[in-house]
User: Fold this.
Amino acid sequence: MKEKATVRYLGYRALVDGGRGFDFSITPNGEQTSLISIGIAADLFEGPDRIAIQEGAGICYETLKSRIETESTIPSQPFSLNLAEVTQHRKISSKPTGRRS
Assistant:
């Protein structure tokens, strides 16, 4: 079941381990708004394939949007991104759009 929802980025905060927590509000079909936090561990911000701090919110947003579209319920518990989700986001965002500049 795909639910329609409005997702808004609220901001980020530093986590104890050096990672980042990205906070979002989700309002499904005009119902009561809920909050969810998505963590990115510090090790994903290091190394040759690291996430730039500036990419974090976008990757979290796209992952959350994807979960809402594919799962039977809207996520209600905080979760952490894994390397597979980051890789998936980068594959999607690097596809050509068919536009010419």
